[in-house]
Specification:
The longest helix has 14 residues. By secondary structure, the protein is an alpha+beta fold. Helix 4 packs across helix 5. It is built from seven helices and 13 strands.
């Protein structure tokens, strides 16, 4: 079985992929529902690799997730191999920020047919589930959420979300192409710097067909149309069981009675 077929199986895509918008839409939606955002290796001081082969082994072969520098890198690899034209872009995550932060997010600009689309499978929270046309002022509605892109002289494209009855900045990006090497330094900062947001607590997130699931610290939250169910595991073993049950993540080697973490 080739690598692309295994990738498509991992996300549950059963059609015949073509380099068109319908396929792109399905791939992004299914990706967000199959592969979790997570920082568990960072929290356990397991070194990350941004080499495509290593990310592929982690996410596709070992059923793990990752964060934007891993997830969007691998998604870009898939899209390019399916015939899409993809530009890797650097972004600033602006949600809940009071000042302009450093660039620490990776997003994709995908050319498809007559248009260009913003694609992102690397955010641990509410984001567009399907590609957004890169057209300023065009409001996109999906899953009860609303988004719009605007242009700023300094920030470049700014993605706004309709939140608390007003438009709020989600993130911004500039569209000059980035090399794989351009992401190494900032990913290392996110992974290792003591003040990095990604080193504060376990963060896991995955979408479901009608909601989402998340982890903050050790608290597992299940969001559905009926509300939010909060699970607070009493033991480390119970926490690992919930990670496996709800996110498909197995951190402990079952063949090792000492419960050795094997990332």
């Amino acid at each position: 079985m080739d690598r692309i077929t295994k990738y498509l199986q991992r996300i549950g895509y059963t059609g015949t992929p073509r380099a068109d918008y319908n396929t792109l839409q399905d791939l992004q939606r299914l990706h967000l529902q199959a592969i979790p955002y997570e920082n568990l290796d960072i929290m356990r001081d397991i070194p990350l690799s941004l080499e495509t082969d290593d990310i592929y082994k982690k996410i596709i072969l070992r059923n793990r997730g990752g964060y934007c520098f891993e997830l969007n890198a691998l998604f870009a690899w898939l899209l390019k191999n399916l015939g899409y034209s993809v530009t890797d872009c650097m972004a600033r995550f602006l949600r809940d920020e009071t000042t302009i932060p450093m660039r620490r997010h990776r997003v994709l600009k995908v050319a498809c047919g007559e248009g260009e689309y913003l694609c992102d499978v690397g955010v641990g929270g509410i984001v567009p589930r399907t590609p957004l046309p890169i057209i300023t002022g065009k409001v996109s509605e999906q899953n009860g959420e609303k988004y719009v892109l605007e242009k700023d002289d300094f920030l470049g494209y700014v993605l706004y979300e309709w939140r608390h009855d007003t438009w709020r900045k989600l993130y911004s990006f500039t569209d000059e192409p980035q090399l794989e090497a351009d992401f190494i330094g900032i990913s290392f900062y996110c992974e290792k710097h003591p003040e990095s947001f990604f080193r504060t607590q376990d963060m896991v997130h995955i979408f479901t067909s009608d909601g989402r699931k998340s982890v903050a610290g050790r608290e597992v939250r299940l969001f559905s149309p009926d509300g939010v169910k909060v699970l607070t595991p009493a033991t480390e073993a119970a926490y690992h069981e919930l990670l496996h049950m709800h996110f498909g993540i197995q951190l402990l080697n079952p063949s090792n009675t000492g419960g050795k973490y094997f990332g």
